[in-house]
Amino acid sequence: MMNSTRVTYEPDVDMSSGEGSLSDDDDDDDDDILQAASNSQAYNSSVLVSQVPTRAAATVGQIRSEPLLRPKVLKKMLKALIPPPPPTNDDENKQGDNKKSSSLLSSAANKDKAPLLLSGIAVPTLAITSISSPYVKQRSANEHKNVGMSGLGQTTMAAMVASRLDVRAYFNGGIVWLKLGNHAMDGGLQHGFYMDCLASICKQLGYTKDDDIDNDNDNENDPKDKSKSDKEDEDEVIKFMALTRIPFEEESVHNKSEELIMRAAKEKMASILRLKAERNKFIMIVLDDVWEEDDIDWFRFDTDNLAHILITTKSRALPATHNIQIDLLSEQEALELLMTESDHPRNHVIGRSAEARDIVKACEYHPLTIRTVARWFKLKEASAGVVKGVEEIQEEVLQCADTIVHDGAEGRMLFGMMDRMLSPAMNGKPTQVMKFCLAALVKVFFQHKSADGSSVPVPKPIPLESAHSLWEAILKLEEKTLFGGQSLDAAQRRRQVLLITRAFDSMGLVHIWSKETEEDVADWRSAVTPGSKELLEQSYITIHHDMQQAYAELLFANGGLSPALVKDSDLKWNRAFVSAYLSNKRDRDKEGTLDSSRMYALEFLVEHMLRGNMIPQAVTLLQDGRFIKNRMDMQGWEQGTARHVKDTKLLYTRLKQSKESGSSSSLEPTDVALAVFKKITEFLCNEMAGVNDAFLEEGCRCIHEMGTSMVEMKCRDQALAQYKIALKLLLPRKVSFAYVEVYSVGVVLLESGDIQKGLETLEGCLHGAQSNNAIFSRKNMYCRALQKIGDAMSILGDYAEAFKHYDMALTAMYEESVDNRLLIGTVLHSKGRVLHKLGSIQQAIKEFEDGTRWKTLELGDSHFDLAMGYYWTGNAYADLDKSHEATVAYEDSLRLLKLNINHASEEEITVRTRLVEGSFYKVAGDHKESLHAYGMALECLQENFSHNRERIADVIHMIACVHVLMGDDVKARVMFQKSLKERDDGESNADAANSLFFLGCVYVRAEETAKGLSCLKEALSIQKASLPDTDLMADTLTQIGAIQRSREDFEEAMKSYKEAFRVREELHGTNDPSVATLLQEMGELMHVSGQLNEAMIFFNECLIIHRRSMNVGDVLVAETLYWKGDTLLALKEYKEAASCFDESLRVREATCGTSHPSVGDSLHKLGVAEYKCKNNDKALHCLFDALSNRKRRPGNQLAISEVLADIGDVRFSNEDFMLASQFYTDCLSILLDEYGPDHQSVGEIYTKLGATRAHLQIFEEAKTFYQRGLRIWKVKEGDVEYLEICKVNESQPDVDRVRVLYLVGKIHEKKGDDENAYLLWSQAYLMYSVNGFSVSHPDLGRDLNKSLEAAENVGGSFFQTVSKGLFQEVVAESDDNDASNPDRAQLIKTANFIT
Question: At what angle do helices 1259-1272 and 1240-1255 cross, to 10 degrees?
């Protein structure tokens, strides 16, 4: 039924009377718009007009006498709303006001032309706003311009327009009135409120279920609405889609689901409007008290401009087709308002008095202030008369104006007048009774508590009887303070309450009306008589204006009430109200009536109990079967359950707070909440027996809601049982909502650590989604299930399946990417985390950053849910040693976590914040703070999330890594072992392999290579069994190869390196730096194993890749050049070696600075190479620079000793034996400190010192040094067997040992032991010749030749025989040598010489 009727004109509001002249207007036609409604010939019985919205009628009904026209504003509004008719020749020739008016009003029958639209606004929208407020504190000049004043009459003007006959005739499809209010605290318009608004639209327009476009579409639009008591009306309600909470759902994802459902509901409403609309039947939707543009958008229905919008707002920045600004009153308008609101004619003589002019001027021509003063004037007049009354009001107003201070708060003059008005004298003194009752009304009924205990303004009307019960109770409670010790009996208190109510009504502070008819209850005062009780019980009261409510709230803050009244007021007053209600409950039960007070109590009584700290009573009531039934019958299953859940969560919070504060209460919060949920579930299960599918789904949604609340309370087992109750009811009937329950069960199982069961459940959910896609297409459950399956596969180590399911989800969501931005970002983040685990860090960073970009498109760049994306990105950069990028990401994460503290539980925020801080400090090098932060995260996890062992294991692993960085291998080892133990059932996945890898490295660093190798091989086994080829696998293989190399298992080491090389090459291609790194490792292995030519091949290939993929001046290039030079040095290609060392030096100096240790290494090796090239001066220069570099590093004594030894060699070569001896001595001192007296290196320096002493002719010292050196080499004097010497020293003989043999022989010669001397010289000469020392040390060869010739001349055939045998041994040993050996000729020459 359309909300319209055919009428013969009867004016709703008399617009023709009074002095609302437009004589100053420049357009006479504008007067016709105002006067048109008064022409009785404008309409006849055939004109169809819509009904006046009840809220508009109620608002206009509060105006005393005649309404203030404000013609300029009204004229603009009518012009914007009703387009002029097309002009005709007849109209131009007709004269007279009545005919003009008829022509204008004929637009009601000619609607082809709608009001013009502004660009970008799809629905005609008229905004009624006000001038900017000079008093409201603004943050900027622009904001000052965009915020209007309150109390100027925007709502009243809208109500007057909506009540006009010409407007109702134009919008004869119906006029809807909705009050929106401020939803900023809720983050915008919420699903429940929006669904109520849509239902109200349908009700006001007379649409019923028969008009529902989804009537036969799905079950959720079929059920009877059990929230209504009138059974005839139950079938008439149009149902919109319900919102279901999903366990462990991120707030932003839930909000997006809510938005999608609201958008679907908006489209459905638009379709219904289009379906019901007839040609020339426009609809107007009045949105009262709008704060945000987004709120308007929800009512801009796509109806081809059939539905127009009229809004009232304080915001001056809302986009609209037309913006009409309401100003302060002119003096004449202010005087008229003062008269009419005091029940005088607008042209009353007192309105022309100086006193009246002073009053409106002091009120700053503000309509609400003048209205309030006028009401007070009416009260004064009753006792003092008109003249005396206006004089007294003038005095009060002027005194108030002198005392108020405009401190940036709006309404100070109004507040000052209310303060005086509400402080009437009693026994010669001002009383607080009226202020006290007004403050209590607002405190108790118009500020309710959310589940977290914060106050939320509630504009809902309150039963008048409930207000009276409160006032009677608190007047009794505070009678000593209020009445000076005087005591009132019940009848006196009742009369006092009625007087206060009359006063508030007369003053215009409250509005009293009947909810059934939404009309003023003008005769409610008759309720004083016994026969009018029913009228009183069906009446409601609400505060007239927000500014008046703001005054009542200020009474608590500015000393408006005595401290004794304010102290613990919320607790005392709520307790008083509950006690008063319960004391009267028995009488109501006997009568069996469901009056307004009882209906209010069914919805809000538990909340008042909790605010009054009546915990035991609240527990009892929430579990009371009759209360549950009555609440459900009154509100319906869904709303009743939602209210019961809200009350239970508030009770749970209060009990927890009480327990944490040390209370000895025996009430366990969780047990109490679960007991309440059990009672509701039992009730619903009984009620659902035999109902249709629609009712069954509604009841199961209620059961599901309680299950999700159990999850929030960390009662996961009980939540699973709750979901399964719903499943048992849904599955046999094949109701599609069953798959939401299946998904919920799977998610809870996953979060509880039962990965396998969770995976199986989600796979079942996926199968069901494919066969029944209705719900899943709306809520994206299908894609969510795919993502969760991917997460489960990742935990189980099946990464190929994880990526498969992630990609399936992404493919499905990219098709409708605008609606799925959040889920796309979530899946990309999950994918990135797996890639990071597998060591594919660069790819992980790409997925993290892409995921964050998708989420930012939906959430903006300052939302809590972006924080973890930045955190994961920072971790990846940290693993690449990119500390700057990591730090930036961590700072972004912390910024978002600190700015958004209400999006997750306190415990979850604590864990996330501490994890980010731990990582931030780790990158900054503050390991102590890092350990502290990680430790706090671990403590919070173990206390609140003990079921999530994987997450706990991850944090323990992080702590272990910090211990590694601190060098505390013992603690690191313990924590890695704990991390492995925490993994569920020893699951073999990338996380376990990672911990094993690091544990193995710790063992190796502690020189426990066997244990280290065991851990690394176990990690490798996991990787090969369950992972694809990854960088982590290559790292593990490389580390294993390094251990095998250190144990001289060169063949196995090479196998490991080659396998790692294969993995790197397959993952990154042949030219990747990581491939070059493996070539470097293999080259070093070949070098240390003596396969020098093979080493050269690897180093050359490595250099090619490095120079192709990076700057030639990179440190990796320098490292390879260094090793290549060392290999060339071993190959005796000294010039080429010097060239490599020189280039390495230049690169390292350029990239690392001259003081870097690597620069010292290159200088050292370059000095050695130059020495081999006989460039002794250059060699000394390089070696001294190397010595200076190494002395800058404390604790680097061994490296210093090497340089000292090489400087001594160069000095010896220069025959500067004294300086050589000094450097050898310094070197020896270091070696003795570091190694002790028996190390081989010490023996070598002893021999060098012996050589210097011999050349200095200090033979006794030379002999002593030689003997010490030979003792360390385990060689006796005279034991000259060549093969034994080489075997004992486990290395190829060098020139120093040749010198030792030569000099010891000289010692034997001086002793007269010519035979042993000759044997030693022969051995020395053979070593000298075989090893090619003739080129570098010709002087030594000359000395040996001389000694052998002299001995041969003395010894004869004995020496020849010995020498020949030795020669044959050496030649036999050298048969495998390269035939091209340049010293072979010298060897033969030597043999010929000896023989």
Answer: 160
